[in-house]
Amino acid sequence: MQPPEGQTGRRESSREDAARSGSRWDPALTRRELLRRAGLGAGSLALTGLAAACEPGRTARPSPSPNWDRWWSQRSRAGVLDFANWPYYIDRHFDRRPSLELFTRETGIRVNYYRPIKDTPSFFEEIRPQLSAGNSIGYDLIVLTNGPEVTEMMESGWLIPLDHSYLGNFAVYAGPLVQDPSWDPGNRYTVAWQSGLTGIAFSPRATEALGREPRSVRDLWDPALQGRVGMMSDTTELGSFGLLAIGVDPAASTPQDWAQAADALRGQRDVVHPRYYDQGYVDALTRGDTWATMAWSGDIFQINALGHPEMRFVVPDEGAMLWTDNMMIPAGARHPVDAMEYIDFVYQPKVAAMIADWVWYITPVPDARAIIAGEFGDREVANSPLVFPGPELARLNAEGSDAGGGARDYYVYRDPREWDRWVSTFLPIVYGES
After folding, report:
1. pLDDT tens-digit profile of 164-214?
2. Phi (first) and psi of residue 290, to 5 degrees
3. Which of 36, 50, 304, 416 would be 40's cystine partner, CB 3.0–4.6 Å?
4. What is the pTM of this model?
5. Residues whose CB is less than 8 angstroms from the CB of residue 83 and which lie 6 or more positions away in sequence, other chains included
């Protein structure tokens, strides 16, 4: 979810201004996927040759297994970038986008900026026919959330491997949360745009009911909160929290663990009577329908700033789920070098600060913090752990410690059958089925 494109480059703080410019948590503007589609689809792992552009309007298909060093050496800057992003997900000032203007001034590359992505599944289904046919989708750079769709694109040959010789800024400034992600080892195909956490948000009513502040995923199972717990209907999020509740790292889980987590979630449903939400969980929390809920970090920072400072977001003792929206170059991109230059451009701390100070999610560049605090004078954002997480959110160590805390990765599905099994395990819980 993104902030509204308001009338100034600064965020509005009053309820009236928020209503005038559009609520930052409007369900129509959600940044996170609301309900995952039921499967990846037949033939999703079939390999196809990648398409590369030689001239505008034409695509040239390289060999099925190209030498990517040679392929990149034959590409050159075109002076144009066609960039597809989500709505409300880049810095604005009136009708301008300052960071894009700076990119054009410094590189001479003109950016055609589009905002067609409302959620990952529907956008993926729109571009799938062109990708499977080896045609250009019309964009050189797209931003999608890690999940089964991105995995399918990598395994189907529908993404161009990145040329890291262009990524000098990424190599120097990328934070540990976005380096070498589990779904894309070595950042071969993707580089983070922004990230967020799925943790627990709560109001003072939850603290009163529990006699303390919520700190554990298991607090969402506490009968003291009966009828006032919010859980997400997104099966990826719901299943991951169920696994955390039984002490299992979602990234290392097995189908047997999924079944046990589903049992725990059914037990929660029978005793606590949680309510299941999409993006509407935010309104339920602010209305008082729920007192403690699964939540996305940026949403809570936004509602703090827009009239609800009493709401808190916490990283549970068991850890918070880390999700990342990724920049990637689709097969058939006509201007791949221009895309590579932009990817590296946004990893300059000054540029990352421009974007983070507006979107309020976790920036991939920790060094942006000093610029936001000093040059921009915005200590609210600079001091927020929801934009600049502290060391307690560092990625779990390479040995895979289950000691708890920190940022947790989602399970990476190996094939469509696994995704179908995950959905069939957790979706019935949302609908009250046994």
Report:
1. 999 999 999 999 889 999 889 999 999 999 998 999 999 999 999 999 999
2. -120, 155
3. 416
4. 0.74
5. 111, 112, 113, 114, 139, 140, 141, 339, 342
